[in-house]
Amino acid sequence: MRGTPAPSSVRPPVPPRCTIIPPYVLQAIAESSDPVAADRAVRALERDASLRERRRGRSEAAPTPTVPPESRPAPGTPDSPQRVVSDAGNAERLPGRVVRREGEPATGDVAADEAYDGLGATWELYATAYGRNSLDGRGLPLLASVHYGTDYDNAFWDGTQMVFGDGDGRYFERFTASLDVIGHELTHGVTELTAGLTYRGQPGALNESISDVFGSLVRQRLLGQRADQADWLIGAELLTDAVQGVALRSLAAPGTAYDDPVLGKDPQPAHMDAFVRTTDDNGGVHINSGIPNHAFYLAATAVGGYAWEGVGRTWYAVLTGPGISADCDFATFAQLTVDAARAQDGDTSPLAHAVQSAWEQVGVLRAGTSGAPAPTAPSGQEPTGGEGAPGGEGAPGRATEVLVRRTGGFAGLTRERSVRLEELPGDDADQWTHLLATRRLSAFSNGPTHPDAYCYEVRCDAPPTRVNMPEPRLPEEVRGLLERTLASGD
Q: Per-residue pLDDT averaged across 188-217, rounded?
């Protein structure tokens, strides 16, 4: 165990990025009749944000360090990772107190040791199966903080490190307990540094799916499971016995992971016929990811054996290869995987046939036409939107009604509330009056959208307003107002 880092190495509270729980799950809890759990969920939602978007990351563009050079660990080697686990002490300052470095013995803190082991298992998959030295291919140190916040219902990758909450104990257990969750979040880092998939519509759903796929493969490889032995679940260890469900998502059967009075029903489709057209959740990135998830499952189980080998290598080759672009849609990605499978094992190989057939079965490629794309739903890359034209003079009155809607996040839940300004506390009503009268919200409509970030929509009739705002660069006072307004009826 080591002492507290020097003040210069401690970062102030930051909004979480690439969170593991979709917003729609936390939103459902926030709207439940359980006041304690609802309060915790609201606090978790208030803290959640996500990675800065890269148009095209590629491996030479390593994440910007957030730790001073003198405190930064050296890169790992091709033969060993470089792990550092810190304890945030239930605060929201990162990284916290370092409790375990590479090669040091177990601490006895279950969360810290699970994080250390999970980072190592993820590094092992990429190093052993694909010859990749850490997330950037050059030994990027793997950093993690545990015990973040109080009863915090999430885990996230903030661009340089993993962060884990302890869960609320009612619906979610500690987030280090799920190895595939650790693999999922770290894979967001790999995607950021390779394909740089835009986090909207079909490219965003592919971004989420790739994290689910490799998160599952991390677990399967550690357990030595063949494709037919794996459960193909994401986050199974996170749910308490109070939840009616088995996990957060299922690659084998999208849409069946949970059906709970509080969390709602798993919304993922398994086929393009059920593709969800929405401007919520950055075009449904956490929902429509079920389609490519299921394609991978079908291909892997058809090939058999260890999924991280044949089909896993195919997906990895596409993710890190020159053909993929930031705006890659389902059909393009599918054809790239078919081409990669043929290059791997031959045009008529079982691998190539399985990959082609899998995409046909989920409706992305047209059956019997040698890889031609089927008619697919639009990518969902809707404009973020702005405010309507001014409609009258003066500030809105206290009877003005404002609708606030929040979508996105790891779980993809939606939360919405319509409220008259006179129903809000005086300070909040004044703040809304100023924002609407000055049309200041329009300044935030074109900010970056990152994996697992929230998106806020505000509507108002007088003055006419309809604006969509991604969370990452919202000022704290604006984000706080939006969250308080959403919670005002609880």
A: 94
